[in-house]
């Protein structure tokens, strides 16, 4: 028998924190054992500090870039892999490279590149997120108006065929769209093909959004951002997101995109399992860069913000480990719930919670090792260790 037995650290399984040893064999967790277990013959024993915490690896469904790479600029397999490597040092062991509104050719290239990257064992790429181009023009944010459009028949045909390309690798296709720019029938068509549909960048009414939910929409992208504010007589898409049962809202917890009071309001409305952390990260993550280019314009990194010259937010300057810490301090959740928001809940949203989001026998050995400050010291992806300092 070969493998590694991790011993000494506390273990958050995705459900509760326990004292246990974790046996990893190949890509998976083979067993969760009583603490102090004897390593089977041929299994390496790795002792961890008792003040460390082992948790399920973080899962980020919205990652535009990292390590100096922007997926829109280089929609290639190599770019998707580089972005995943950059985020791994911050505890993200699985992510969706995100391609925002752009040319049709770029969108198609990005999807196929992510499918190729998903086939690489241990890459950390588990699908693709296409954010746009079917958005409400006045709610597009930093998305390029020249490429915002209605869905054509060729668009729908292409999107319908994508899940088959990803399915063989247990990977997913997420599409963010405006419910006022597509019909419920089109949403149902995409969902029937296996596309996960989320609402975003939209001026849809409350009724329009609920019709989209009835048609199969199950999530909302960066809640409150690029949406009209809540109003008493027209709650709009944000109100529908807060009240629609069995939907999950991605939320950016950086203290910039959403006020802490609104974070707590969302938490109270959605309850456990209703919010998942996302970074909406851009190329500066993992670098000391002070700016980058998007659509030919300079995006400035200032005081925890990524902004255009006119102050429009262009993604977020945050990593997932910081998002977890912020959730505790800004939302008032405990450590376990913050960790679930970064792992179990996104796994459920992606229908991958039978293999990711927990430390459990048979689940993939995607783990993060955290110190007492919830700083990442290293990760395992598909059973392979990497020190965060590398």
Give the tags.
10 helices, eight-stranded parallel β-sheet, alpha/beta, 390 residues, TIM Barrel, Urease, subunit C, domain 1
Can you give a write-up of this model?
This protein is α/β, with parallel strands linked by helices and 390 residues long. The chain has two domains: 83 residues, Urease, subunit C, domain 1, CATH 2.30.40.10; 293 residues, Alpha-Beta Barrel (TIM Barrel). The chain contains ten helices and 23 strands. A hairpin with a 2-residue loop joins strand 22 and strand 23. The protein is globular. The mean pLDDT is 97.
Which helices and strands occur, and which strands form pairs?
Layout lengths: L2 E5 L2 E3 L4 E3 L1 E5 L2 E6 L9 E5 L5 E4 L1 E6 L1 E2 L2 E2 L6 H12 L3 E9 L3 H15 L8 E5 L21 H15 L4 E6 L6 H10 L2 E4 L6 H10 L3 E2 L15 H8 L4 E4 L8 H11 L4 E3 L13 E4 L2 E6 L2 E3 L12 H12 L3 H8 L1 H6 L17 E4 L5 E6 L2 E4 L3
Parallel strand pairs: 1-6, 2-7, 8-11, 11-12, 12-13, 13-14, 14-15, 15-16, 16-17
Antiparallel strand pairs: 1-4, 2-3, 4-5, 7-21, 9-10, 18-19, 19-20, 21-22, 22-23
Helix pairs in contact: 1-2, 2-3, 3-4, 4-5, 5-6, 8-9
Pfam family, one: Amidohydro_1
Organism: Niveispirillum lacus
InterPro entries: Amidohydro-rel, GlcNAc_6-P_deAcase, Metal-dep_hydrolase_composite, Metal_Hydrolase
Short description:
The protein has 390 residues and is an alpha/beta fold. The protein is 27% helix and 26% strand. The chain has an eight-stranded parallel sheet.
Question: What's the number of extended β-strand segments?
Answer: 23
Query: Unreliable runs, pLDDT <50, ≥5 residues?
Result: none
* Intertermini distance: 29 Å
The secondary structure category is alpha/beta
CATH-defined fold name of the largest domain: TIM Barrel
CATH architecture of the largest domain: Alpha-Beta Barrel
Percent of sequence in beta strands: 25-35%
Helix content: 25-40%
Instruction: State the CATH superfamily name of the largest domain.
Output: Metal-dependent hydrolases
What is the CATH class name of the largest domain? Answer: Alpha Beta
The description of the largest β-sheet is: 8 strands, parallel
Order of strands across the biggest sheet?
Answer: 8-11-12-13-14-15-16-17
Write down the overall geometry. Answer: globular
Mean pLDDT, to the nearest integer, reads 97
**Overall radius of gyration:** 20 Å
